Inverse folding.
């Protein structure tokens, strides 16, 4: 009969062989993705050598004598169990932002049934299939070029698009029971055509998805409501934007039009976005060189051509993978993306713990750098708008977390609020703090979809627009 010690060693050997197999598959996947999808060189070689090193270590452990092998296995076992205890805690703690996010859609469906409100359960792909493939375009804006998959393109093309493809159907998101769908304007933003004329625009809005009008119908977004109230308004907001992308957008699209008022929308995760943006040498040129511009407002044909080539290239790569892998319904990359979004697969990969550690370390490490960059950005923005006698307003947008009792979570971004508002106030930029106005309501959650996690609903956008109109009229 095998002793307990022998059983432990046998189990350890099986686990080591299993880990070697998994690491080998990861290595193969990375090579395929590098060849077919042009993965960033640094990212690829980092993964390649780390995985290769881990495989070597596993093989070495497997070849050790019995006693050493047992000790190595015990260390690995205890370390792994400890990691997964923390991982499961961050994944399933009631106040975890991931729990809120993962249950948001389920909650919306339940609430819609209770209130007898129709909720469109079709997927984005099903909605896209209703249109010709040439009509629809998926692109989040400049944020996409911060992804390792596309980071090399601005340098190769000497072009960093900040908007999207012009005159395309954009299927955005569904949080209130219906899909947010709009047709992009002549520069790829969410506006009607024909507004880009100097001395014709009164207000321009800059920001992220909230400035874009995320997850509501176009006519329920802030800039459309302002237009209805006789304020000629354009939004050049794009989902995923942070302060540096917004400074770039200000220089490229707002300064040429010289609107009387510029509304700078700041959402509570924007300093985190800024940390990523500062890693782009191309974007940092806007920060270091006050006169730098790509003249994007007159290069839309070039932007459209680039984005179309990227779209066609992706389709071609998908077709190649389909032929190589003989998978008819999907491909390796899409399959991996689908797996990556699965909660259990995220736990296996220790994604929740890694994100927590990464954000805490990064924010502490780069906090001074981020704060200094933010102050510089806002100062430049104010000076640029003032240069033509325009007026800059800073609109602080609060998150759902603030009103849902999540202040103790590691991803509650409102802890930055004091620094942000103090910085803007010292620059003498008028502040419209929407948090103050939401708190005046007896129930701020009514401004969110089905009182749950997400962007603002139509009522929230409408309320914010009323606040903005009152403030700018006071000035």
């Amino acid at each position: 009969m095998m002793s307990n010690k022998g059983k432990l060693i046998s189990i350890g050997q099986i686990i080591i062989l299993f880990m070697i197999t998994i690491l080998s598959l990861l290595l193969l996947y990375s090579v395929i993705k590098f060849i077919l999808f042009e993965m960033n060189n640094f990212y690829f070689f980092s993964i390649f050598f780390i995985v290769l090193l881990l495989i070597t270590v596993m093989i070495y452990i497997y070849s050790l004598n019995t006693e050493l092998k047992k000790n190595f296995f015990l260390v690995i076992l205890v370390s792994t169990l400890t990691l997964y205890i923390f991982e499961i805690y961050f994944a399933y703690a009631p106040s975890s932002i991931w729990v809120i996010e993962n249950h948001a859609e389920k909650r919306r469906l339940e609430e819609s049934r209770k209130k007898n409100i129709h909720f469109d359960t079709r997927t984005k792909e099903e909605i896209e299939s209703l249109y010709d493939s040439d009509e629809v375009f998926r692109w989040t804006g400049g944020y996409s070029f911060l992804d390792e998959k596309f980071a090399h393109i601005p340098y190769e093309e000497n072009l960093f698009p900040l908007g999207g493809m012009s005159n395309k159907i954009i299927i955005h998101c569904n949080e209130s029971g219906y899909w947010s769908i709009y047709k992009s304007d002549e520069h790829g933003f969410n506006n009607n055509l024909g507004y880009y004329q100097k001395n014709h625009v009164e207000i321009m809005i800059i920001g992220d998805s909230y400035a874009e009008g995320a997850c509501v119908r176009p006519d329920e977004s802030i800039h459309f409501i302002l237009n209805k109230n006789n304020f000629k308004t354009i939004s050049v907001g794009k989902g995923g934007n942070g302060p540096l992308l917004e400074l770039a957008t200000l220089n490229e699209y707002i300064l040429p039009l010289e609107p009387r008022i510029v509304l700078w929308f700041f959402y509570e995760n924007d300093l985190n976005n800024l940390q990523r943006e500062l890693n782009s040498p191309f974007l940092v040129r806007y920060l270091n060189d006050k006169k730098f511009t790509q003249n994007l407002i007159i290069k839309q044909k070039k932007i459209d051509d680039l984005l179309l080539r990227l779209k066609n290239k992706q389709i071609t790569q998908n077709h190649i993978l389909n032929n190589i892998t003989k998978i008819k319904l999907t491909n390796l990359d899409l399959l991996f993306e689908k797996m990556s979004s699965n909660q259990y697969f995220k736990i296996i990969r220790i994604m929740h713990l890694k994100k927590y550690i990464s954000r805490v370390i990064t924010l502490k490490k780069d906090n001074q750098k981020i704060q200094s960059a933010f102050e510089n950005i806002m100062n430049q923005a104010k000076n640029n708008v003032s240069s033509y006698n325009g007026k800059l307003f800073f609109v602080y947008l609060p998150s759902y977390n603030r009103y849902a009792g999540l202040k103790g979570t590691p991803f509650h971004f409102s802890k930055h609020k004091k620094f942000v508002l103090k910085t803007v106030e010292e620059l003498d930029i008028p502040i419209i703090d929407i948090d103050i106005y939401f708190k005046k309501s007896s129930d701020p959650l009514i401004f969110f979809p089905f009182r749950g996690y997400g962007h603002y609903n139509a009522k929230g956008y409408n309320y914010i627009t009323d606040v903005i109109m009152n403030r700018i009229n006071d000035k």
Remarks:
- The chain is about 55% helix and 5% strand.
- Residues 317-322, 324-330 have pLDDT under 50 and may be disordered.
- The chain has two domains: 4-83, 124-298+341-474.
- The domain at 124-298+341-474 is CATH 3.40.50.1110 (Rossmann fold).
